[in-house]
Structure formats: C-alpha cells, structure tokens
Amino acid sequence: MKIALAQLNFFVGDFDGNVSKMLAAVGEAKAQGADLVVFPELSTCGYPPRDFLEFDDFIRRSERAVLKLAEAAQGIAIAVGSPSRNPVVEGKDLYNSAYFLEDGKVKHVQHKALLPTYDVFDEYRYFEPAKEFKVVEFKGKRIALSICEDAWNVGNENPLYTVVPTDEMMPQRPDFILNLSASPFNYGHAKDRIQVLQANVRRYGIPLFYANHVGSQTEIIFDGGSLAVSPSGEVFEELPYWVECVKTFDLEEVVRGGRHVEQSKEKVALIHDALLLGIRDYFKKLGFKQAILGLSGGIDSAVVAVLAARALGEDNVRVLLMPSQFSSDHSVNDARQLAVNLGIQYDIVPIEPIFERYEETLRPHFIGTPNNVTEENIQARIRGMLLMAMSNKFGNVLLNTTNKSEMAVGYGTLYGDLCGGLSVLADVYKTEVYELAHYINKDGIVIPENSITKPPSAELRPGQKDSDSLPEYDVLDAILFQYIEKRQGPHEIIRMGFDEATVRRALRLVNMSEFKRHQSAPVLRVSPKAFGVGRRLPIVGKYLS
Amino acid sequence: MKIALAQLNFFVGDFDGNVSKMLAAVGEAKAQGADLVVFPELSTCGYPPRDFLEFDDFIRRSERAVLKLAEAAQGIAIAVGSPSRNPVVEGKDLYNSAYFLEDGKVKHVQHKALLPTYDVFDEYRYFEPAKEFKVVEFKGKRIALSICEDAWNVGNENPLYTVVPTDEMMPQRPDFILNLSASPFNYGHAKDRIQVLQANVRRYGIPLFYANHVGSQTEIIFDGGSLAVSPSGEVFEELPYWVECVKTFDLEEVVRGGRHVEQSKEKVALIHDALLLGIRDYFKKLGFKQAILGLSGGIDSAVVAVLAARALGEDNVRVLLMPSQFSSDHSVNDARQLAVNLGIQYDIVPIEPIFERYEETLRPHFIGTPNNVTEENIQARIRGMLLMAMSNKFGNVLLNTTNKSEMAVGYGTLYGDLCGGLSVLADVYKTEVYELAHYINKDGIVIPENSITKPPSAELRPGQKDSDSLPEYDVLDAILFQYIEKRQGPHEIIRMGFDEATVRRALRLVNMSEFKRHQSAPVLRVSPKAFGVGRRLPIVGKYLS
C-alpha cells in the first residue's frame, strides 16, 4: 500500500482555497501512485480557527469542504481533518475529527480524544473529547487514525491526560497509525515531536505516518516536517521544513526500515527560517506586499530589516532613519550602510522639529516639572507616528523590532517603538538576536559590524545605555528564560545562583509590564513560550510585583 | 445551623491581603453567630489567576493561605475555594477545589468537575475535572459542596457537560448545597444565575447557598449578588451588588422560605454601576489615583468623564480639550461645560501647531499623494500622544473612550483614540451609550444636552459625520449584536430582515479590524460577549472578510 503525506499551507477560513489546494494534492498523490493521501488536522478550515468555530455558518462550510473532498476520493482514499458535529445534546457541540473518505463517501470518522488546552491551544473551548476508538479497514489493512495530541500522552513523565487513545485501539490490531497534526513550531519542537512519535511506534510496534501543517497563521508558525516512522522507531523520512510537499511512501518499505532522512535542526537556522515564513505568510495572507520599519543603527532593527528583505524582497522593504539630538553619528551611518547593503529604500526624517513643537505645546502644562521618561517617550512616539503615517499613506505594514528581553521587562514605549502590525523578534531574546546577526553575516557582512559590537542603547538621552537600567543581557536573559519558559519562581531561580536582588527586580519588571504586552502587536512564536496568546496573565495582579 | 455567606473583593495574587480579609470575615461571621462561613471559589489566590497557576511558588502560597484559614476554623467551620494538587501523575496537575475547614484542620476537599472553557474562562487549561463526589458531614448535616459551573449543567437546553456533579451526590442525601462561585457580571447574568440555581433547588428539593466574588479584576467584573435559595425555588435573599458583605442565614428559616429579597436588575443601572466598580478597582488595585482623558464634546468621552468622576472623585480626573481646525465651536463649548458641571480640571491644547510640523516633516515624502485617512490618523495620534505625555508626566492613567460599535467595525485610530490603560465603554454599544447618558442626566443635566443630541462625528475633516462611513447606529448595533453576542452568521442575520449589503459590509468590517482590537486596552466587560479575553479570533483569516 502506498501512503501520501500532504504537507500544505492552509489559510484559516479560506475554505475554497484550502479545498483547491487539497484537490491538487489529491491529483499529485494519484500521479505518485498513492492508495491513500493524508492531510493534516483541521485542514478544511485551517488551524487555529479559534472562535470562528462558534459560528454555525463556519461549520457548515467545513462540512461542505469535506463533501467536496469526498467526491474526489475516487481511486484513492483521503484522510482529512475537519470539525464535525456532536449529535448528543450533552457535551460540547463539536468534535475535532479525522474523516476517512473512500469511493466518494465518508467511510469513517474518528474524533480526537486529547484536546490540548495549554500554551497557544484552546481545544477544549470548542470540542468534546472522543470516547470511542475504532480502526478503519482499507484494502485489507486496519488503520488507527489519531489526531495530533492523541499521540502525545506517551513517552513523557507527566502525562496530561488519563487516556491513551491508541492504546484503546490496540485490541483491534491496527497495521499502522496515521497522525493528522497541527503542531506549531518552536526551535525545540522537531526533536520533541520525533521522540514522542518514536515512543508511540515502540509502544505499538507498527509504523506511523504523520502529516503536519506548514505555514504561518498570524503568530503561530507550522514548520511541516511530516514524518514516516518505521516500527523499529527509526525515522524513515522527515519531510522538509517551511515548504509544501506531497510525498508518497510504500508501506512495506517503511515497515522494513533501514532508511533515515532527517532535517537539520540547528537552532539559529530554524529561528531564521521560521521568521522568514512568518513574515512572508503574514503579508501574503493579509494581502499586503510591502513592509516599513525604523532603522536605528542598532542590532534589532538591522536583523528585522534583513529578515524582511529576505522574506519579501528588497524592493518591498523601506526604512526610515529618524535621528534625534541624542542619536550618535555612527547610528545613522550604520543604519544607512545596512540599507545600502540590502538595497532597500531609506529616508532620513529627523524628529527634532516635531519634538520641539511638542515641547512648546506642553510647556505651559509641564511648568515646574523636571524632565523625565515623558520626554523620552515623546521621542519614541514621534518615530512610531512617522512610521504609521508612511504606513497609512503607502499601504505598507509596519514591522515591530522589539526583542523578547525588552518585551519581557517593559523596556519599550507603548505607542512608540512598540508600534507595528507584526512583531518579528519579540520571541527572540537579545542574546539570541546576536546569534541571528552572526548567522546572517556568516557568508559576508550584511549587518555592519558596528551595529553588532556597540553597547545597546535606546539613544533617548545623552550617553544612555541599556545596561544603565537593565542587568547585562546574558544575565537578564538567563533569568527570564527560567521564569518565562521554565515557569520557575523566585526561590528556584535564586537557588540556581543568580543574585537575589537582580532576580526579584527582573521578575517584578516582567509582571509590572503586562499592560504593555497586552497592547502589543502579535509576536511570531519561535520558542516554547512566547508572549501573546500562549501566555495569559492578569494585567492587574499582585504577584511578584 | 447558621450559615454565613462572605462576599468579598479579592485581588489576584495578593495572598496576604486576601487572607486578612477572610480572617476579618470569619470574625464577623462568628459575631453573627454563624456555625459555618462560606467564601467564594479560588478566594485565596483571587479569580482569575490565569497562568500564575503554572508556578509552583503560586500554588505553595495558596496552600499556605488555606492552612492559615484552617487555624482560624475554631468554633466555626470554613468553606473556601483554593487550588489543590492532583497527586495522580496522569492528568492535569491541579484541581479547582472547595476546602472544608473545621477544628483547625482540613476536614474535606471537594474538587470542581465542570471546568468552564468558553468566553473568558480557561479552567481546563489548568485543572483536572473531579471524578469523585462526596458530601461532608458537619453538626449532623450533610453538605454538598459544589463550585460555580458545577451547578450550571442543569436547567439549560444544551448542557455543555456529560456529568451533573450534584446528581452524583444525591445518593448520599445531602441536606443543603453550598456553591462557591466566581461568576462574572454581565447585564443579564444575575437573572440567568437565579434561574440556574432555582433549577438546581427544584431538582434536588434542598436549599442552596451561593457565595460569589464582588470586585473587578482587570476586565472581569464580579457583581456579588450572593444568594440563599429556599427548597421551594424561591430566592430567600439576594445580597447586594457591588459591595462586600458578610451575612448569616438560619438554615431552618431558609428551608421554611416565605421571604423574598431581590436586587433591582435594570440594565442601564447595572451597566453604570458595574463600570464604576470596574474603574475604581482598576485604579485601586494598580495603585493609581488619578485619571486623564480627552474630551471631544461628544457623548462617549462625556459619559466616560462622568463615570470616572463618580468612581474616583472629581479631584482625581483631569481632561484635555484638543481642538483641531476641524473642531466646531460647540464641541469645545460642550466639553468645557461638562468639565465645569463635573468640577474637574480641564486644559485646552490645540493640536494644529504640532499637526503643521508633521505635515512639514512629511511633505517631501508625501509628494504627489492626495490627502487621505493618513492625515486624519495623524490628528488622532497627536491627541493620543498629548494625553500619554500628560499621563507619563503626572502619573495618571489614560482612560479610553471608544464605544463597542466603533471597536467592532474598527472606527478608531490605533495609537490615537484607541490609546489608554483601560477601555471604559468598549463593551457598550453606541445606542447603549445614549441610554447611559440619559440615565446619568436623570436627576438633572450633567452631560450637556447638545453632546447627546448632535450627530456623532470624529471631526477629523470638514463636516465629517459617523453616518458618512457607517450605517446608522441603531441598525449597525442590531447587526453587531446578532453577530457578536449571538454568533449568527450572515445568512441568519439577513433572514432577520436586515439589508444584505449592510450586513456583509458590517461583518467584513468587524473581521478586518481584529488587528486593532488585538492592540487595544483591556475592556471592562458588561455584556455576555465582550472584546478581549472572551472573544478569540485570528487576526489573519479569510472568513467573511
């Protein structure tokens, strides 16, 4: 039997587009001689559909998409993920289902049992968990259908669920497992995913075929990396990341094993490529072509400019250099040099004249008050406004250049440098931004060396350096990683050897700046714990603050 | 037996504060002769604790809070909600639990079975559902402990869960039910809540005591309205809204019934009072005293100014009037008159000089382009920046004045009039803002009549009216209500008799402006479906857009 994995880039809510893509893939799978083609979880409606699932109209469209695919299931069977209705009045109204389509009809539907409701996931918000588990027979083989998380309750020390769906199917002696997934990327996820699938295969002694989404949906990036795993536990083949593909496997060959194709998992390269896809899909799916951003001469905006030029083409990126009285000459020179290196349009727009007018306007109201962060914020906000004015006038999307360290501690001005339609680096710690910069420069200088080597500064007052008000980034990032990614509390982090006052201050800054993150642009997620939909904290709270 | 309901205003993460409040209430209940005092759901840590629950440190502090309360359970028993750990490795690590404390010890723990994971709720994100149900015996009575949603699976046509927890307890013949709740306010909720509790009481034929939170946590407002319900189904007493109270009931009296105390449920009054509490708690819990906002002379900012002055005191509210060349004289006059009526500080800051400087600065980059929304946005953003500058300089919080109709269709400028720390009206449709204005003026003119009667306008270009670009608000709001609150799709709404083109355009505007809502201030929730944490939609999507 020949099984095709179809790793496609879907678009949430675009039923027509998603179905045509799948119909083309059915054709390709047939041409490859496949008996069966496997699409990922919730392919018809895209993932994550979120509260669109609460609309009956949306579910009807999903159902019509499944029926269209069923019509195409002639001479080939199709496994596809789509929502289905729960006919029982008790419980949620929907299931997250795998449809098995054969001979123009729906032959079997297996619902998802394990509904992830952590981090970016909200599945129990919409779906009833499956309580029945049945294999489907096809051409003399028994197939265990499972959906993403269904495979994730084995091979970990602290299982989140009390059921293991595939265990329930084992008495029916399946020949292989199909896992339909929507498993979001983070820089460690491909490794985790392979380990979990290997644990499954070793537990059951049968091969597993895993079809994943590729593409980005607002902040959530899917890397692809679909898999055929041999019963020995060996990865038979891992499909490429970041690209759509349809690839057919011979079941017997996968059972035999002895082949091993795996993708490189170098962290910095993964982040780089993920961000390119995240930028590209955000623009393509929103129907925009051009980006704008502010270049400060610093490393963050330099990295974003390079990523944008690589993702969208240098003709589709323009930058503003917006020096103030506190900007050093080298900042403007470094920014200009980068623009020249990239071949992107740049304009220099000094902010001092506007700043002076704000000062004049506010002077009567500020009488008797000392200069403070207010004046720094005004400068940052003038820059944000100029960028937004260009964005509004020319229809390009403002890219935000804040990094994760700044976003964590609230080192940024709301409505100023926190402006933007998409935040490219806010899940990349400052120390990782340096890694990205070196990676970008690996085959020759793109980002001027000076932008990388000089001490970070917001240049909002004379001689200002980030390290005046923040711990050095290597220390800060290590503390933030423990708190944000690892959910360690102050005692645990201090016990690791970090200075107590620094830890308490860092955690306090994180908790006190939730209000800024709440109003920030969506953040491309590349880590296991990004700011945004996957991290939900009170704005008004009194914990470590 | 005498049972005290303690309806208190907790603060998320403030364990010390929450415990002292509860200890004081224990004292008060004792003074009232109570045998048992009942606190709401998750009282120790406050509700909703969100991802703080993922921190072991946070759970340890909750546990310590329970032990402190247990020490106080001498001569009185205490029922209190707090997280507890799931000792079984499979499943989530926590339960949402009701502790029964007696004689200085934890006598019994009943976990919550029904974990709401819709709208603003995320409980299955953290908690394992209870599978065991045991009554607790106290002074010869058997008590069924239930937690909030546990009571909500009866009395509705489409139950969300397959279990009814109190049904499971009935073989143990409980004498009464205690329900520990954290049930957020909306203008229809008190009625729903009473109906659901009545359905419970009628189903089991025993009295029910219901303790709810009062107070606001960022965007979620709790009204209180704790209840004693007689076995006949009659509301014996509904405690007041918006205030803390401890009230003791005699079980035999509640069983006998014949008493009926209920609070007024007039919609506009409820919304008015809820917004006052929402503003007051936001400031108090964040540690701020003073608010600032822009007064345009229109109805929205007028209503917010009144609410702020009533919530914080007139000395704690200041306003800016920021006329442009397009502002009409009456706008400035109406705004000034309101400030005078309220006795709040106002300053007039014309924006034209700054606007001109922006135009000069951008002129070389805008050559050959026509004036468009860009220039309107610049004006709105100058106002936002001036307000933020005052906010930064004087440490007051900017209140946002956008209403729900504007927020829905994206009629507002990001980083301009969408600025603010808290959005007061973004869950109040424009037609409801009028109701609020009339309610405010019911005992005499506070808001100038002219602000209420003139046609709504953003005054960003000559003669501009909202109705130039939007349907009339009575039509628009009716369509939005069906789409947002009722989750009706285009076909259903058109079938109700609305013009097809208007419906399609309105829904498209809603879906296209998700990016603006994503970056907006937290919205005080007063309706069954508010923008923010309870409504989760993709920014990049292709559905009805």
How is this structure best summarized?
Two copies of one chain form a homodimer. By secondary structure, chain A is α/β, with parallel strands linked by helices.
Strand content of chain A: 15-25%
Secondary-structure arrangement, i.e. CATH architecture of the largest domain in chain A: 4-Layer Sandwich
Largest sheet of chain A, if any?
Answer: 6 strands, mixed
Q: What is the highest CATH level, the class of the largest domain in chain A?
A: Alpha Beta
What is the approximate shape of chain A?
A: elongated
Quick one: how many beta strands of chain A?
A: 19
Distance between the termini of chain A: 60 Å
| Range of helix content of chain A | 25-40%
Q: Of all protein chain pairs, which has the greatest interface, and how many residues does each chain bring to it?
A: A-B, 98 and 97 residues
Mean pLDDT of chain A: 97
Q: Give the quaternary arrangement of the chains.
A: homodimer
User: What is the count of helical runs of chain A?
Assistant: 18
CATH fold description of the largest domain in chain A: Nitrilase/N-carbamoyl-D-aminoacid amidohydrolase
- Number of spatially distinct domains of chain A: 2
The SS-based structural class of chain A is: alpha/beta
> Measured on Cα atoms, how large is the radius of gyration of chain A?
26 Å
CATH homology group of the largest domain in chain A: Carbon-nitrogen hydrolase
